[in-house]
Amino acid sequence: MADTRQPSGVPSVVTASRFLVSADAVKVLVYFSELGGITSEVESTEYISASSNKGEIVHSRQFGKTKPPTVVLKRGVDGGGEMWAWHRMVLEGLDAARVGATLTMMDAGGKARGIYELTNAWPTKLEVTGMKAGASEVVYESVTLTCDKITYIVPAG
Fold first, then answer.
1. Does 58 map to a domain?
2. Fewest Cβ atoms closer than 10 Å to its Cβ: which of 9, 40, 44, 82?
3. Distance, C-alpha 116 to centroid of its chain
């Protein structure tokens, strides 16, 4: 693994210029310009018990229910339609829509700066925004991917 530390020994901050989502099983290879966020959450649950020596009530917080991880991405619409085809599989209830996918953060030179493996990923939401007749604004496609698990992998080199 390459040392990503600055001369001062402090790790360098990851900067990304684009994000690549790939999922071979559904023939998706799409670049995104914006990562809205990666969310992985575990709820905390209150646990109340009585101590054994004096019967005092003890309050503590424990790990609770996990929520499915999500990834929100945004890009200019290019007419490719790969994400819409994948989402169509979900709308039709096809089990084949749940696939292993990879999200790669790439720097301006095209080097991978972070890789996230998404287990059983599927697009739960697609949204097209920014359309106005006669305007020259970019039309954006926003995609929310939900998965069972996200694993971070430090890229080699």
1. no
2. 9
3. 8
Q: What is the CATH number of the domain that holds 142?
A: 2.30.110.20
Q: Is 69:38 a contact under the CB 8 Å cutoff?
A: yes
Please give the structure tokens belonging to residue 124: 């739960």
Answer yes or no: is 5 within a domain. Answer: no
Domain count, the chain: 1
- The model carries a pTM of 0.80
Within a domain: 108? yes
Residue 119's DSSP bridge partners are 149
pLDDT in tens, 74-128: 998 888 889 999 999 999 999 999 999 999 999 888 888 889 999 999 999 999 9
Cα separation of 82 and 84, whole Å?
5
List b or e across 105-125, with b for residues whose CB sees 16 or more CB atoms inside 10 angstroms. Answer: bbeeeeebbbbbebeebbbee
The residues near 9 (Cβ < 8 Å, ≥ 6 apart) are: none
Strand bridging mode 28-32 / 99-106: unpaired
Q: Is residue 48 part of a domain?
A: no
